[in-house]
Structure prediction request, 297 residues.
Amino acid sequence: MIIRRFFYVFIVILCIFGLCCNKTRFMYNKINGIMSVNKLFLVILFGIVIACKSQSKSENNTTQKVKIESEKLKVKDQKLEVKNLTKNYVLGKFDFTKHSDFVCVPKKLSSKKIYLRKEVLNAFEKMATQAEKDGISLKIISGTRNFDYQKRIWDYKWNEKYKNVAKNKRALKILEFSSMPCTSRHHWGTDMDINNLENSYFEKGKGKKEYDWLVKNAKKYGFYQVYTSKNNGRTGYNEEKWHWSYVPLSSLYLDFYNKNITNQDITGFQGSEFVSKIDMIKNYVNGINPEILNYKN
Ligand SMILES: [Zn+2]
Prediction:
């Protein structure tokens, strides 16, 4: 727009210069009978000023319109996030493969078919690109898991892996690393496991470099480690150096969960009779990195 204004000013200057020039004056003198040179100059000048003003006004209007529209969209989007949330969504009782807000993670970023919310994948791609530039490879090894998927994991551990542990202790044993169905953050499409499922992998060599990079940089892209060290009194699952969450979105979902879900909603699998005794929502769903609990959108 500034360039255009300079252009108009340049034309005006050119006109003035032209009118002062004898040769040009000679040409204008030919039409002197119809209109005097001074009058012609004034008409041209007036035309340019009007064109300049209306152009700048319309550009201003368009810029303002676009700005207002994008603000509206932003607010609408934020409202939609909360508006579209349902109890079934945060409990993982929906088909994410058919949900329009979910996308499949590209092969170069994952080892298998994994789904995440679009916003989350978008942010992860930006983070992975920067990581790659820094010599760090980030691969998603687990993303969204719904109620049924989580139930399969839970049932296997309940019926096979820990079948010899007394029932009243079995749930707690499984809960060292695995969530009960209805309580997993993997239901939300905002959380993912990166590179490896062993803490020891991230404590030396290549894994340590990857973890150190994430600790230093992930927050810039909205990602936080969810299950940090329990040394500071955090309750719930053991530390998981691989589990990261896109907090700008997951903090909204956690807020919804805390307002709408009770321990009575956590049901439909073996061992669910221990949910209230363990106080799943207080100790596990909210037993997370305090930075996430205090996160403000
Ligand atoms: Zn995980």
User: Anything to note?
Assistant: The pocket of zinc ion is lined by residues 142, 186, 193, 243 (CB under 6 Å). Residues 2-72 form one domain.
